[in-house]
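We append the chain.
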Amino acid sequence: MLLSELNITSILIDVIAVVFVFTFLLVFFLMKKNYKPLIMYSIIFVLYITVVVIDIIFNAEIARSAIEIFTIFACVALAIVYQNDIKAIFFNLQRHHEKNNAQDASYSDEELKTAVDEIIKACQTMSKARTGALIVIAPTSVATHVLKTGVELGALVSSALLESIFNTRAPFHDGAVIIKGNRVLSAGCFLPLSQSQSVAKNLGTRHRAGIGITEETDMLTIIVSEETGVISIASKGELRRFVTPDRLRDILHETYKIARTTKIRSII
């Protein structure tokens, strides 16, 4: 009797754990708008529950062991393929506990206006020269693991600096620049690529990276196409192309306005 109760308890714990993992996967793939893996893991979930029920009725331990091994393999595969996205999720959970003196530096409205003007000037120049660029604007905190993929700078934002970083002969031109306030925190950073099926097939890695970082964070990205010189903006997983300098200025000012409001609220 005791052995039977322990067996039932063990099965219930397994089922609860699997349901928890499946719920996480459901939310994860829905947020990324990636439905094919969701269907695959849903099938695995249904198979697992079915085998557990068969095990309870017919004591089919071999079948259950096989599906458990397959489930573990599927979870490990998920962790490998989406490791950057999983890192971003954990960053969002811990973001309010992270401290970085460079990120918390104060800046005036005039300094922000100057930074916006310099960013726009650099984007216009690179657009005309068809120089590819990926600029990340961080309204609040920045993931430490993202900053560490590049080289920390802590320099004032200037068009000359941005243009030199994205010069095709520069060592960091393929990576992203992280800007917070009026400071370039890091250059040459690698960002998680978007897995969304809605992203146009003709868009390359730079655009997918620009979209990917905004799917899990509140960051805004500016992408300058190397092929066409088109300036695009990504926010909340959505890409807006053919952005004019005036529109870019409005969006940046709005982003910095929200950032300052959030900072004031956190202080209060």
Q: What stands out?
A: Confidence is low (pLDDT under 50) at residues 96-104, 264-268.
